[in-house]
Every structure is written in C-alpha cells, then in structure tokens.
Amino acid sequence: MSKETDSPRLRLAVQKKGRLADDTFDLLAKCGLKVRHGRSRLFARIDELPIDVLLVRDDDIPELVASGAADAGIVGGNVFEEDRLTRDGEGAVIADALGFSRCRLCVAVAKGEAYAGPAYFSGKKVATSYPGLLQSWLEESGVKDAQIVLMHGAHEIAPRLGLADAICDIVSTGATLDTNGLKVADTIYRSEALLIAAPGLDVAKAEMLGALKGRMRGALASQHAKYVMMNAPRSAIPAITAVLPGADSPTILELAGEGDMVAIHSVCNEDVLWEHLAELKSVGASAILVLDIDKMLN
Ligand code: ATP
Ligand code: ZN
C-alpha cells in the first residue's frame, strides 16, 4: 500500500476560472501553497500540505461541499447564501470570511424612475439569478406582491425587452447598468469570499482545515500589516501608541548612551499612512521606519 492512501487529504473546491479564481490562487500562493496544475483539469495538488484542489464552476461549490464530495471550498458569499436560502437539506458551514472578492448585490431600476424605498417593488417584476436573496430582502422589507423572474445572465436587458420592471444583480462600477438605462436603487447583500466546510468533518480533516485557515489568516493579515520602528523620548510612548494604527502593545528598547531616548517597535495591523508618520513626528518620534511583513502567524 502506498503512503498516500494512508494519510487523508483535504479536498478543497475552488473556482476554476473567473473573478474569484484569481484572488483564490493569489491567496493560496501567499499561504506558500503552490497549486500544481493544468487549470484545465479537474484536480490540482498542493505539495506543502495534504490538500487536493478541485477546480469547478463557482455555482457548484456549495453543493459539492454540502454533499461532502469536497471537504471545503472557497466561494462568494452571494453564491453561498443563495444556496443556503434555496436548499432543502443540510448545507455547508462558514469556516471563515476571507475579505476579498468583495462585491454587492443590488436592485436596479430604470434611470427615470423615482425610487423612494423597497415599497417601489410592490406589484413589480424583478429579473434575477438570486431568487433566494431577493425574496428574503423583499420579505424583510415588507414587500409581499413582487414577482421574481428567474434569469441566468444578461439581466440588464430584461427591462428593455419588457420581461421585467427591474433587475437584481452583482454591481461593481455601475457602468453596465448605465449603458442599459438603469440605476442602482438599493443594495440588498454585501458579499466577500468565504471559506466553507462540509458539515460534520472528521477530526483529522477538521484539523487540516484549521491549519489551512491559520495560514490564510496569516497571509491576509500580513497584507496590510507593517512593522514600524522609531526613536523617541520615553515620555512620548503613550502619545505614540495612541497614533499607531491597529497596533498591539509596542516593544520598547533602550538606546545605548542616549539617556532618556528609546527605540519603539510595533506591528501595525492597518495601513500606515503618511498622515500617521507626520503625527508620530509631531509627538516626538524620529528615525521612523516602516517595513513590509512577509508572513505572520498569530
Ligand atoms: P463560473 O464560470 O465559475 O460560473 P461566473 O461567471 O459565475 O463564473 P465570476 O464573474 O467569475 O462568476 O464571479 C465569481 C464571483 O466573484 C461572484 O459570484 C462574486 O462572489 C465575486 N465577484 C467579485 N467581484 C465581482 C464583480 N465585479 N462582478 C461579479 N462577481 C464578482
Ligand atoms: Zn458562476
């Protein structure tokens, strides 16, 4: 028997090609996980951890994970929530929110329409491929008699064709809406990529997922994190700590032969801007250095 069949591998479903795929492969690379493919094939391998990557369409990811065909997946919150709202059986569970591939699901109406709130949709037809999310928003907004027209693409032309009065779709810049004589009326859902897991993973796989999640958190956190160093008089420490964005308690080091002066080192978990540096200077800091952090494990 080969060694490989002894040790279980985590099967991770990701989008093969598309807006989510680029960010997903970037993240895996930042986690030090090089995916070996053939993106055209169904499977790819990660060498550094016992993970097999399943390359699929994003719409299939929630079902693959819910059914246990994949142990985990990376999918847009929009697709995950739509699946959760429209499925019968037990669904996948959210293991982590990943903060990338952010987008919003909006309802849009003709530019000339006066839109004063969700009541507008009473008695109207709305074209969407997100019937679950739209229905739940309409219900929460107290609209009972809107009609949902299911479409799988090219929603923007539905109003012009007389198929619907309005649409509900993912909006990024609004340019497509504009070209089709539409405008955003309301945002009904804000989406980001999610790490999802099969319900009831066994202990070994749950541990592997935990390790993957730890690496992802580290990679995502270090994207914005900076290592900041400066010199300052000891008395300025409280003022400096107050200015540092998203910092834990700093490390204070004596400066040899400099009397009251100390070196202050800190990890900042948010973007460090020029304004912050100017402020640090004004409260007494000098020789300020800001360094990128490659990896971080909290
Ligand atoms: P597939 O062939 O896998 O079905 P698709 O055409 O359905 O691909 P993409 O356009 O690649 O999907 O988008 C995948 C996901 O990326 C979306 O479901 C959404 O979560 C996210 N996303 C981020 N930004 C945008 C955007 N500007 N437009 C559409 N989706 C976006
Ligand atoms: Zn899709």
From TrEMBL:
Record's keyword annotation contains Metal-binding: yes
Protein activity control: Feedback inhibited by histidine.
Keyword annotations: Amino-acid biosynthesis, ATP-binding, Cytoplasm, Glycosyltransferase, Histidine biosynthesis, Magnesium, Metal-binding, Nucleotide-binding, Transferase
KW Nucleotide-binding (keyword) present: yes
Catalytic activity: 1-(5-phospho-beta-D-ribosyl)-ATP + diphosphate = 5-phospho-alpha-D-ribose 1-diphosphate + ATP
InterPro entries reported in the protein's UniProt record: ATP-PRT_HisG_long, ATP_PRibTrfase_cat, ATP_PRibTrfase_CS, ATP_PRibTrfase_HisG, HisG_C, N-reg_PII-like_a/b, N-reg_PII/ATP_PRibTrfase_C
Entry protein name: ATP phosphoribosyltransferase
